[in-house]
Amino acid sequence: MTRIVLGLEYAGDAFCGWQSQAHGRTVQDVLEAALTQIAAEPVRLHCAGRTDTGVHASAQVVHFDTAAQRPPTAWVRGVNALLPAAVVVRWSVAVDDDFHARYLATERQYRYILHNAPTRPAMLAGRVGWFHLPLDVARMAAAAECLVGMHDFSSFRAAGCQSKTPVRLMHEARVSRQGDYLLFDFRANGFLHHMIRNLVGALVYVGKGRYPVAWMRELLEARDRTRAAPTFAPDGLYLCGVSYPPRWPLPGDGRIIALPQLPLV
């Protein structure tokens, strides 16, 4: 058996999330079907991070085992010929069988792109979030700094989250502006279910002046989901980087940061 690692890009608004479901079209479903045709045997995928319905990826990493002997191009060009337009394999690498896309990932990086303007976006509908009132980016950036470090993120955890612990190490949490777009960048050793969308929702509350900057720290200390803001829409969320130990020389260390080109900025 050979273990193959793939780098993926997909538009999440075309699928019912990553994970295979009996009642919906998922990224895992269409990719496993394409790989099974190329391998001429059933293929089961393991991913670095399961994305929800509507969440995109510019740097998803997955692996699978196969007895099929194929040239590397077969796992890229061959598979892409069988995939819908909203998902593409960017690269493939054969690795040792002790590699695991999920359990060996040391960091994951996400970006949320928010269109901050009086009217909703049209050309990027489904690919960026939207908030109509003016937002104070300086306040939001200051609030985001409170998130850096080792914290219990229970206040930003979905009720159905299955993680054994709410504690995560946040390496980076930044908010910046490019024209009418706000960029929320988060990098951590892992994330809880809906954690980023809940963080964005809270930061938007700070940005519009509903709460002071110190509210973010208060939420962390409260460890109470009911005290935080509602979960923000998935439209602007992108998995844009996964890192592994240097033993596995994945292309770009598993990172593909190319996100949709922001217009007129």
* Biggest sheet character: 10 strands, mixed
Under the CATH scheme, which class of the largest domain?
Answer: Alpha Beta
How far from one another are the termini? 48 Å
| pLDDT < 50 stretches | 253-260
Q: What radius of gyration results from the CA coordinates?
A: 19 Å
| Global shape | globular
Outline:
The chain has 265 residues and is of the alpha+beta class. It contains five helices and ten strands; from the N terminus they run βαββαβββαβββααβ. Strands 1, 2, 3, 4, 5, 6, 7, 8, 9 and 10 form a ten-stranded mixed beta sheet that branches.
Your description of this structure?
The protein folds into two domains: 2-104, Alpha-Beta Plaits, CATH 3.30.70.580; 107-239, 2-Layer Sandwich (Alpha-Beta Plaits), CATH 3.30.70.660. It contains five helices and ten strands; from the N terminus they run E-H-E-E-H-E-E-E-H-E-E-E-H-H-E. With 265 residues, the chain is of the alpha+beta class. The protein has helices at residues 27-39, 77-80, 137-145, 195-207, 215-222; strands spanning 2-10, 46-47, 56-66, 87-95, 107-116, 129-131, 149-152, 167-178, 181-188, 237-243. Strands 1, 2, 3, 4, 5, 6, 7, 8, 9 and 10 form a ten-stranded mixed beta sheet that branches.
Q: What keywords describe this structure?
A:
2 domains; Alpha-Beta Plaits; alpha+beta; ten-stranded mixed beta sheet; 265 residues; globular; 5 helices
